[in-house]
Amino acid sequence: MDLNKIYTESLQKFVQDHLTEDPAHLLFKHSGKTEFDLKLAVQQIAARQKAKNKIPSWAKNPKLLFPASISMEQASSEDTARFKSNLVTGKSMADLTGGFGVDTYFLSKNFEKATYCERQEELANIALHNFEQLSNDKFTVVNRDSLEFLNSYQESFDLIYVDPARRGGENQKRYKLADCEPDVVNHWNLMKSKSTSILIKASPMLDIKQALIEIPDIQKIWTISVRNEVKEVLLFWKKEEIEGPRMINCIDLHPDGERSFSFTFEEEEKSESNFGSIGQYLIEPLGSILKAGAFKTFGIKYGLKKLHPNSHLYTTEQLPTSVIPGRVFSVIQEISSPKKNLKQLFPSRKVNVITRNYILSPDEFKKKHKLKDGGSQFLIGTKVGEKYTLLLAEFVK
């Protein structure tokens, strides 16, 4: 299919002229009045509106085509794709689960040649069109099952990248690697025979320790959050890599700069937390750190006391001089009677709510007390020792 004949200059101009308008209204207003496919144009406008923050450099490129919404939702963000591109390098790479092609494109920055595999013909056609706009002859698009392709491929890649599909029948979500498609666990040896390194993008819900049991060869792990929201878990293997401690690298990507924390599971198992009562400051580790399970090593590294073994909130009277990879709050007061005190403290009913190891979730707490997010202050519900406690605090940094 020649998409250039469908994605005409007049269609592109319409998209650019109406980027900020309501797609449904455009479809109604211009129905039967265009020489091009109006539904496609409106779909492109809707997709670019969604991509504005997720993939900004692509959203700004008028020549690129965007797929249906489900593929947009599953695509990597530009932030995480750029981060991954700095982890790997070589002459040739293959993306076994190409999708929209965001990861393929950014990973290819440090490779001479890139092979994109995708079973869905429509997505493969869109990727081919976009790669032609973005680059020269670096990309090879393969529209077939990636495992069949690997079995028939005679050469070897410097990198195989795979983002297994995590949805089964009836849109059921899957988190174990062996339950996803392609099954990287049972086809691990095949992938190792076709590449000198493998990078797996897994669900943020992945049980990392279970994944290491399934694939013991994994040498490095990254938990990636964007603006403190966990997005990806990355698993990496490289042939003939010098054996050493298996590092878990917790990364938060933020416009103000990247924050990180690294540890090993062995360190975590050997560590013992220090516990204490509430001090002047409360610290909540980055989501990527909590995802990785650095519950004891985090507190020890920064000299912090833990409130409870299962609360994962930390406290101190004085902040360390080093930058803490987490959110820091200054404690204002303990709230002993929420039903009475909250009406007085928040007549507008606006306050941000965080709960860790508490009797209610944030949504349950807000519903019970008729609160909504907003303002500069936080209510933090947690367990200190054997007591559930509600604290009023202000965000410091």
TrEMBL record:
Q: Which InterPro entries match?
A: PG_1098_Fer (IPR054168), SAM-dependent_MTases_sf (IPR029063), Thump-like (IPR041497)
* Single Gene Ontology MF annotation: methyltransferase activity
The alphabetized list of GO BP terms reads: methylation
Q: Where is the PG-1098 ferredoxin-like domain?
A: 281-319
Q: Where is the THUMP-like domain?
A: 326-393
Iron-sulfur as a keyword? no
Q: Which UniProt keywords apply?
A: Methyltransferase, Transferase
Q: Which CDD domains would you find in this protein's record?
A: AdoMet_MTases (cd02440)
- Cite a single Pfam family from the UniProt record: Thump_like
For this entry, the protein name equals Class I SAM-dependent methyltransferase
Organism of origin is Belliella alkalica
